[in-house]
Amino acid sequence: MWRLLEPLRAEDREAFLALAHRRTFARNEVLCHEGDPADSLHLVERGHLAVHGTLASGAAATFTVLSPGDYFGELALLRADRRRTATVTALEPSRTLAVAGTAFNRLCEHNPGIERVVSTVLADRIDLLSRRLLETMYESLDRRVHRRLLDLADAYGGGDGAVVIPLSQAQLADLVGATRPPVNQVLQRLADRNVVRLSRSRIEVLDPAELRRRSP
């Protein structure tokens, strides 16, 4: 079940999904660029997607990694300028259910509850980004790395067992909001304690419970 649709009545969910078209994307394919005209809302059906943003200076950051059950594009459909607010890239072969913006608008006109749900989840997403900003400003790098690893372990598997995260240390650093060398130092300390195992373009979380203990 997609989290965006959970609060809807069954008939409203069916009406929403009836408008969707499946789209497939190859690894590293860009689904949309920041600033592009927004023409659709996407529900993630398979794979993992990275959401990036850039500053005028050219600096870039990865906001989050989306997994099956997540969604993106709702903010652009509600903005007056109808522009994408981030770039979304497939980290692996992925598939989404895309609902065209025009169809979404017509559905909202006949089912006002859908737009209210989208507004609510949008507020939740803004709250998450605000908390991430506060973490970057005031939390130690160690704790930020631990929390992002837990988020990724949940996205790629969940549970308390070992989870393979097919991301490089540079990609993790981008997600944490730091440079690679200090993030590598944090990861190496975790590896020395057998909390994670490091290899090329992948990080294996061996002990999620220990990570949770280190990131209250």
Automatic annotation (TrEMBL):
Positions of the HTH crp-type domain: 139-209
Domain of life from the UniProt record: Bacteria
Pfam families xref list: cNMP_binding, HTH_Crp_2
Keywords, sorted A to Z: DNA-binding, Transcription, Transcription regulation
InterPro entries according to UniProt: cNMP-bd_CS, cNMP-bd_dom, cNMP-bd_dom_sf, Env_Response_Regulators, HTH_CRP, RmlC-like_jellyroll, WH-like_DNA-bd_sf, WH_DNA-bd_sf
Domain Cyclic nucleotide-binding: 4-107
CDD domains, per database record: CAP_ED
Protein name: Crp/Fnr family transcriptional regulator
Upper lineage: Bacteria, Bacillati, Actinomycetota, Actinomycetes, Propionibacteriales
